[in-house]
């Protein structure tokens, strides 16, 4: 049989004082004498009293809970970022509730409505690939629930944002392929409505322009950020009459699909075609050949997003301006792109 929990009422009854006296004593109020506080605390400890979290949330107008929405928790990038959020949240006395949009706008919308009903103190989110209207995040803010975006950010929503320098990472990845003698470089971009996709595409394009390499529309295709999309687009690119000699993929999940397709088609990497991804998942170094990739500090992104959100929650005033924190990326060069240079 479940044991009844100890309440403030029971402590008050045993000490023959009022419930308000016990409540004030437990809150260390200056209105209560030190002797009474001592009696209340000693009895509370002996009875293993713990405050009702629902009552506390009503009293403080907080639930000590953060909501997190990510497209797919199976993606190691997002699971690592969640680890960073939880690292900071736990250290500051908060718990987390994790939701997955599964790249669906409707699912993301339902998640935000559930978050509002559950009275979370704030939300950290990376938007879905289908999300074009961001009004649901503004509605949360209007209800007093601050929102911080990371990686896939809403450019139209006034809020703190944490992202990596996608443009620089893509530029350096493309320039690396050019330095290895590649002249027919294709790009598999992510969904175009996401800012990370557009920034990575622009980095790719500008690197080509800088080095005087012609841009071909047929060599730029888009995909969802998943392995299946990468495989499908690799088959499409390699079927071209004028096929590429290198592929820069907008994510490692896309690149892993490309890697599999190239091996199935009998192409050797990097001799026949070079390949670079983006995000440097742990599995990337285990492929044969190992995948070159642009590394993102996902754990640190989660930590920073959580810190910015908690500062918003615990601040007594609205910030004068919201911040966009841009973390640096780092190109990790492995065998998949180390094409042997041919001397003239």
UniProtKB/TrEMBL annotation:
UniProt domain HTH cro/C1-type: residue ranges: 3-54
Source superkingdom: Bacteria
Entry keywords, A to Z: DNA-binding, Transcription, Transcription regulation
MF terms in GO: DNA-binding transcription factor activity; transcription cis-regulatory region binding
Keyword 4Fe-4S on entry: no
SMART domains: HTH_LACI
InterPro entries in UniProt: Cro/C1-type_HTH, HTH_LacI, LacI/GalR-like_sensor, Lambda_DNA-bd_dom_sf, Peripla_BP_I
PROSITE patterns for the chain: HTH_CROC1 (PS50943), HTH_LACI_2 (PS50932)
Protein name per the record: Transcriptional regulator, LacI family
Taxonomic lineage of the native organism: Bacteria, Pseudomonadati, Bacteroidota, Cytophagia, Cytophagales
């Amino acid at each position: 049989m479940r044991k009844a929990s100890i309440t403030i009422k029971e402590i008050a009854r045993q000490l023959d004082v009022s419930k308000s006296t016990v409540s004030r004593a437990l809150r260390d109020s200056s209105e209560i004498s030190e002797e009474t506080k001592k009696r209340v605390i000693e009895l509370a400890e002996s009875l293993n009293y713990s405050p009702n979290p629902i009552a506390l949330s009503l009293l403080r107008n907080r639930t000590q809970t953060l909501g997190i929405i990510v497209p797919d928790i199976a993606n190691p990038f997002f699971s690592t970022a969640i680890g960073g959020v939880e690292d900071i949240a736990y250290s500051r006395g908060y718990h987390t509730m994790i939701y997955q949009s599964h790249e669906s706008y409707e699912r993301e919308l339902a998640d935000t409505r559930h978050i509002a009903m559950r009275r979370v103190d704030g939300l950290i989110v990376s938007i879905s690939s289908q999300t074009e209207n961001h009004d649901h995040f503004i509605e949360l803010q209007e209800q007093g629930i601050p929102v911080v975006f990371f990686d896939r950010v809403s450019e139209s929503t006034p809020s703190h944002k944490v992202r990596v320098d996608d443009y620089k990472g893509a530029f350096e990845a493309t320039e690396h392929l050019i330095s290895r003698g590649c002249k027919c470089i294709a790009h598999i971009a992510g969904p175009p409505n996401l800012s990370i996709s557009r920034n990575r595409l622009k980095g790719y394009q500008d690197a080509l322009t800088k080095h005087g390499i012609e841009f071909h529309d047929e060599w730029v295709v888009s995909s969802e950020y998943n392995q299946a999309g990468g495989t499908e687009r690799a088959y499409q690119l390699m079927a071209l009459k004028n096929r590429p000699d290198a592929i820069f993929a907008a994510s490692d999940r896309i690149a892993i699909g490309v890697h599999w397709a190239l091996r199935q088609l009998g192409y050797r990497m990097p001799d026949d075609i070079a390949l670079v991804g983006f995000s440097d998942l742990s599995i990337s170094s285990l492929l044969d050949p190992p995948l070159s990739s642009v590394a993102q500090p996902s754990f640190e992104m989660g930590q920073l997003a959580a810190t910015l959100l908690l500062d918003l929650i615990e601040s007594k005033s609205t910030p004068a301006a919201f911040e966009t924190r841009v973390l640096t990326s780092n190109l990790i060069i492995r065998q998949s792109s180390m094409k042997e240079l041919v001397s003239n």
